[in-house]
Amino acid sequence: MKLHGTIYIVNLSGGRLACGARSVLLLWGSGLGGPHEVTANMSNFAHGWVWLTALVCLATAGCKQGNTSATTLPDGSKGEGGACGGNRVTATDVNQDGRADIEEVQRGGRPYCMRADMNFDGKFDVERFYESDGVRVAQERHDFDFDGRLDQLSFFREGELVRKELDTNFDNTIDTWLWCSGGWVVKSERDRQRDGKADVWETYTQGVMVEAEYDENNDGQVDRWDSFRNGKLVLTQYDDNRDGEPDRSHEMPLQSLGPADDALRCTSAAEAEVAAILERGRL
Q1: Which whole-number Å values give the CA distances from 220 to 135, 143, 217, in the listed order?
Q2: How far apart are CA 54 and CA 30, in angstroms?
Q3: Is residue 260 part of a domain?
Q4: Residue 189 in contact with residue 163, Cβ under 8 Å?
Q5: Res 39: pLDDT
Q6: Number of domains in the chain
Q7: Which value, to the nearest 10 degrees, does the dihedral of the CA atoms of residues 175, 181, 183, 188 take?
Q8: What digits encode the pLDDT tens for the residues 4-53?
Q9: Dihedrals φ, ψ of 32, to 5°?
């Protein structure tokens, strides 16, 4: 029997049981014809009334509680998302501590999502969802500070990253929204007041900022405009009478212009780290 550190997990009434490395979880039920590893597709059990007569964990170190993960999207998210769950779960214990570090989940016979515990603390902090082909990434979620709450959401279309949402101060509320094209940031919205509403709108060309609009008094109207040339601020305009139009402007002297900001690229966080832990799980 080939296990290679793989942990087999089955969800029963919403619960999760995980056995340690080199262990086997067995089920006996009517119509099953004997013991089966629980990685068997759970849809097989739907063909008849299945009753559980024995649940045996033959582990060298005993069974431990499975990992948990954050599945609720932070406040302020413009995205949609549910839990990473399906009818077949294959889990891997990378560091041999008796807990699953990677779970690969299938629905309808195809990969649906994957989640990983990057720092081996018993909580999943990366979740990756796939498109209908089971190959291209559709959404990715990250918990950067390992507190069990999501801090960044990345959304893909046909395998290309098109939007990101970030909680930059780790208060469980999205405060920065980025739109991407061709690997570059093309637009962003930011919530500086931390009230759940955008009050800064920025436009980019190939990751270089060209214009920024601000709602300084938080009344829902733009009252300041910044213009950039080659990534450097050259002009600021103000709306003093709140009519939505600039009333005065201030040009920046050329000698006062500092270095241009670096162009902003759109990348999914921790790509190399996720790839590395997945590769370790396959060894």
Answers
A1: 42, 31, 8
A2: 12
A3: no
A4: no
A5: 35
A6: 1
A7: -20
A8: 344 444 343 333 433 333 333 322 233 333 333 333 333 333 232 222 22
A9: -90, -25
Q: Is residue 65 part of a domain?
A: yes
Within a domain: residue 197? no
State the sign of the Cα–Cα–Cα–Cα dihedral 48, 49, 54, 58. Answer: positive
In a domain, 238, yes or no: no
Which residue, among 203, 194, 191, 199, has the nearest Cα to 219 in the 3D structure?
199
Q: Which residues make Cβ contacts (< 8 Å) with residue 97, sequence separation at least 6?
A: 120
Domain containing 41 equals 6-158+270-282
Determine the average pLDDT of the residues in 80-104.
Answer: 90
- What is the distance in angstroms between the CA of the first residue and the CA of the last residue of the chain? 16
For residues 83 and 227, give the distance between their C-alpha atoms in angstroms, rounded to a whole number: 42
- Tokens representing residue 2 in the block: 């080939």
19 three-state secondary structure: strand
Q: Mean pLDDT across the stretch 106-112?
A: 94
| Residue linked to tokens 């080659």 | 230
Q: Is the pLDDT of residue 198 over 90?
A: yes
